[in-house]
Design brief:
about 425 residues; mainly alpha; 3 domains; 18 helices; about 80% helix; transmembrane; membrane; transmembrane helix
Length: about 425
Amino acid sequence: MREEILSNLNNPRQLETLYWTNKTTFKAAFNTLYPQLQGNLLAEGWYQRLNYKPDELAWGTAKERLFVVGASGLAALLAQLPKIVSLDEGYFYSRHVGFIVFPLLIAYFAWKNKISWKTGAWLGGLILFALVFINFLPKNPASNTLILSCIHLPLWLWSLLGFTFGGGKLKGEVNWLGFLRYNGELAVVTPLLLIAGGLTTALTINLFGLSGWKIETFYFSYIVVSGLAAVPIVATFLTQTQPALVNKVAPVIANLFSPVALVMLVVYLTATVFSGKDPYHDRDFLLLYNALLIGVMALIFFSVAEATPTSKKPVQILILFLLSTVTVVVNGIALSAVLFRISEWGLTPNRAAVLGANVLMLSHLLYVSVRLFGAMTRKSDLSLVGRSMTFFLPVYSLWSAIVVFLFPLLFGFK
């Protein structure tokens, strides 16, 4: 390796190839050669690259830490409102679960990105309007439009978070791809915090149990609920201040699970042929189809969001293309099942919502599949795949707003 480094010292491309062939051997060989290479600018750059170590972990500024602590405490307080003011927990959490965290995360990124007061006022006004609207809907637990509004409201708030994360620009391009990457990193950090919290909970309860104190009810009602409300905020803080925690883990997870998801999906589709069940007459089976569809779509988007134009190998792009193609088949089956149920039993709020979502997802998947095919055949760049993913996100936001705010009116609060 030493001879190869010396012979290619003035060939940056070949040095890069040697480095990626065997990083450990390359670093050891280069460091032994470095004393005789001092003065060479390229060698100096490689030495700094190979031996750089950050002095200490960065935990954000003091103001940022204070903001996160305050926001976490406020989220915990909001989660405890039903107990503080004696509200019905079912009513409160079904309508307000999105308001416990999303406005605080929106405020966090609005502060970090220094968005204008005008944009901040618009965001605050939209959140306040949604809060008032959802509370003025008739209190009818059997209302399908109420349930749909409660389900889609967090999705709409999530889109406002994406707009704020991307810079809150009313004019210009919003960084939606960065927002998808943030969500993927959040999906990595959040379970780690939950596992740590679960271990702490088990240890605390058992230690008190040994002393004769039964604190399970109190602990779960106050500590666990408050902790769950604060987790997304703390996880967000970690993704922004400690990117090294997830920058390397997230792509590995995406690359590992993509082929697994492809095999699972093919096996599942094959098994359904022989199971005797179908989504055309089995409503629960149709819901499972759609849940599976959303999960696989999220995996595809996460995989591409974590990629760079040079980080994905042809085999990985092929797997993503096959995965998207199989997912298109699943989506097509689900969409045909929804259309069949509408033709047989008429249009209902639930069927209208699922129909719109399936049409959007199918259109989106087809677009992404075309771009993946282009990247696989080297007719286009992988960056175009990322753009194809983010192109539809504002459309999803618009659709979720229609379901939240217009469906109750269009279907007479049924």
